[in-house]
């Protein structure tokens, strides 16, 4: 990496990016995430800075904007400062020296606070004995380490928007690479202008989480509360619309009224499964009434995390060079970015710069194609939104991660119209899968072609026929089960039954009105999801007795993502190893018998109502690796395994709070789903 001197003659063919152009691009790339909230303070922003011309231009533009408007709003809050993060990959002997050179140039920019972040390869690779330069996937490992380091620093600095300097030339190269890789149409739209930070799944506050804790601070940066003036204006507006003879005494009347919307109780899983014969061994054995529907508060739903934004995607690199040259901003050239033998991107970059490509592969044509694809995708999303509005979410239970939905009837149409409707239906299905799936990567649309025919028989094709009768199926770690509310006619109905049977054999059976969507049962060939936590304080030798000490401070206070669905925070007060693993049938009887009689009945009702059939064995459970004598509050480490609690149901052994406490939340869910369920992630 070498310093590039400022040339005496500027680029006359390329126009520098103006502050106003940058503001417009910034607003488009970084819209508010919580438009219904109002800000109560400033928040800092982060800029990932490599020292190249693109990131140095981005840092300069932020500095210029800060000078022009010190309180400009980015996302949801006014900007409270700009942190420029310089990553030291520690892969070259000169990398530390090079990163300090970038820091010195950034320090010349007013309003910019530069910080050097060195990758901790020992932590990233889990061992100090591995040389990262020997890794066969070094580029992938470096990317993962870079984003995780940036995400962690964003959390530390209270930053929720991290800006990257990808530009139009990068967009061109990306689409060309995807063309070479054989990606389908949707993969050719290029780099997105904003999205969740990648490579950080499972890191609390960094990826799709942390908003609840943020809003529960004494001074949160956002609020959903109305200002006193807004309350006063609303009240005055309401009074002005009431006829004069009702104005007098209205205050007293409104205070006395308790008007609430009324609707019948939502249908629960047991209402359907009782009709299709899903047995509940516990309920059958103890003869619990099927009408008993215990109250179970929903879990809080997470949101938040660090968002990455790319405001320079519409600007060519020449314009960024001109921006730096005109304003005396120096940058650095990394020779590894020009070696076509190192990476595919370098090879594509070399080809673009050194060869005259066919017109269809040149930057203007490629970017226009990407824009057309974006418009087509936007149209598909709008049609999928229409289907989602017609979809009824009968029940969404965060405690078990299950959905009951009634899908809309979708009529087939000829020609391209059928494919468009199938695409919209696939987008709807993927949206429902996202609510329940434990997987980080969601199914691609081509993999949902057969699923669309199963769920929407009228959209079936010859290549992808409908299932008759509908059957359960797995996709993306999710189990779809049909809920047949209309049983077939009895054989005793004579001619009517025969006629009905003949009719059903002549035409595909319509899709059932409802589907039960749950986490798919665990595969016997794969390890079960597991988190382990160790309280080492007071840890004796294996097999010896230890006593719970209530004066110990809690440990393990961090949130952890279990099975990609539940955020769990245990707090341990007993020496030994605790684990969060699925509820297993082998522990069910012992756990049930250890509960108080009323709690035992409550457990059986909860399982029957909210986790029928095998769904219960996908619930998180807290285990202790040893045995516990509850009478003396002593434990023996390594002596078997003890099931302590089903945290998402709020069921636990007596006196559990003396040795472990826990909190549990559900993963981030789309706001459109929460609105349909009349839920909110802000509690």
From TrEMBL:
Pfam families: ATP_bind_3. One of its GO terms (biological process) is tRNA processing. It catalyses: cytidine(34) in tRNA(Ile2) + L-lysine + ATP = lysidine(34) in tRNA(Ile2) + AMP + diphosphate + H(+). Residues 45-197, 304-349 form the tRNA(Ile)-lysidine/2-thiocytidine synthase N-terminal domain. Its EC number is 6.3.4.19. This is tRNA(Ile)-lysidine synthetase. Residues 484-509 are annotated as: Disordered. GO terms for molecular function: ATP binding; tRNA(Ile)-lysidine synthase activity. Keywords: ATP-binding, Ligase, Nucleotide-binding, tRNA processing. Residues 497-508 have a biased composition (Low complexity). The keyword Translocase does not apply. Gene3D superfamilies: HUPs.
């Amino acid at each position: 990496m070498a310093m590039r001197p400022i040339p005496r003659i500027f680029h006359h063919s390329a126009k520098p990016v103006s502050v106003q152009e940058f503001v417009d691009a910034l607003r488009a790339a970084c819209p508010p995430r919580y438009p219904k909230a109002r800000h109560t303070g400033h928040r800092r922003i982060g800029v990932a800075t490599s020292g190249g011309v693109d990131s140095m231009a981005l840092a300069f533009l932020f500095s210029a904007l800060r000078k022009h408007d010190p309180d400009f709003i980015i996302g949801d809050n006014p900007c409270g400062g700009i942190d420029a993060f310089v990553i030291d990959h520690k892969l070259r002997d000169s990398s530390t020296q090079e990163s300090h050179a970038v820091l010195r140039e950034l320090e010349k920019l007013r309003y910019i606070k530069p910080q050097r972040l060195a990758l901790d390869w020992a932590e990233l690779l889990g061992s100090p004995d591995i040389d990262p330069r020997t890794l066969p996937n070094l580029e992938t490992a470096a990317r993962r380490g870079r984003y995780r380091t940036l995400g962690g620093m964003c959390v530390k600095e209270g930053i929720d928007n991290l800006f990257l300097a990808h530009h139009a030339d990068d967009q061109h190269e990306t689409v060309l690479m995807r063309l070479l890789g054989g990606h389908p149409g949707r993969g050719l739209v290029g780099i997105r202008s904003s999205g969740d930070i990648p490579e950080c799944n499972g890191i609390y506050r960094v990826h799709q989480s942390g908003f609840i804790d943020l809003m529960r601070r004494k001074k949160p940066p956002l609020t959903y509360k109305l200002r006193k003036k807004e309350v006063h204006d609303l009240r005055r507006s309401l009074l002005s619309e009431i006829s004069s003879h009702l104005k007098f005494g209205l205050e007293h009347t409104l205070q006395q009224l308790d008007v609430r919307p009324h609707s019948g109780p939502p249908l629960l899983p047991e209402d359907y499964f009782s009709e299709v014969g899903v047995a509940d061994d516990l309920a059958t054995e103890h003869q619990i009434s099927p009408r008993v529907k215990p109250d179970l508060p929903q879990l809080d739903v997470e949101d938040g995390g660090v968002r990455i934004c790319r405001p320079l995607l519409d600007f060519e690199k020449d314009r960024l060079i001109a921006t730096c040259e005109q304003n005396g901003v120096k940058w650095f050239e990394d020779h590894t970015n020009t070696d076509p033998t190192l990476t595919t991107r370098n090879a594509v970059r070399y080809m673009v710069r050194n060869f005259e490509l066919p017109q269809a592969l040149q930057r203007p044509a490629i970017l226009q194609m990407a824009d057309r694809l974006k418009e087509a995708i936007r149209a598909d999303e709008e049609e999928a939104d229409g289907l989602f509005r017609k979809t009824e979410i009968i029940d969404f239970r965060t405690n078990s991660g299950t959905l009951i939905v009634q899908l809309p009837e979708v009529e087939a149409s000829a020609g391209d119209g059928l494919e468009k409707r199938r695409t919209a239906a696939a987008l709807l299905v993927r949206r429902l899968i996202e609510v329940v799936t434990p997987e980080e990567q969601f199914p691609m649309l081509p993999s949902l072609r057969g699923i669309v025919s199963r769920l929407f028989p009228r959209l079936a094709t010859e290549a992808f026929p409908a299932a008759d009768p509908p059957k359960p199926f797995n996709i993306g770690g999710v189990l779809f089960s049909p809920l047949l509310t209309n049983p077939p006619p009895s054989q005793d109905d004579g001619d009517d039954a025969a006629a009905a049977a003949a009719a059903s054999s002549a035409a595909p059976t319509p899709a059932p009105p409802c589907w039960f969507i749950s986490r798919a049962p665990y595969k016997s060939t794969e390890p079960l999801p597991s988190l382990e936590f160790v309280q080492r304080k007071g840890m004796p030798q294996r097999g010896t007795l230890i006593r719970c000490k209530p004066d110990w401070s809690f440990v393990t206070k961090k949130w952890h993502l279990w099975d990609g669905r539940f955020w769990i925070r245990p707090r341990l007060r007993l020496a030994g190893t605790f684990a969060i693993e699925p509820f297993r049938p082998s522990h069910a009887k012992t756990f049930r018998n250890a509960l108080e009689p009323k709690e035992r009945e409550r457990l059986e009702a909860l399982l029957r109502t909210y986790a029928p059939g095998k769904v219960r064995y996908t619930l998180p459970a807290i285990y202790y690796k040893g045995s516990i004598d509850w009478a003396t509050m002593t434990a023996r480490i390594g002596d078997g395994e003890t099931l302590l609690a089903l945290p998402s149901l709020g069921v636990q052994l007596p006196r559990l709070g003396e040795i472990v406490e826990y909190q549990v939340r559900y993963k981030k869910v789309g706001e459109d789903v929460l609105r349909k369920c009349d839920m909110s992630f802000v509690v």
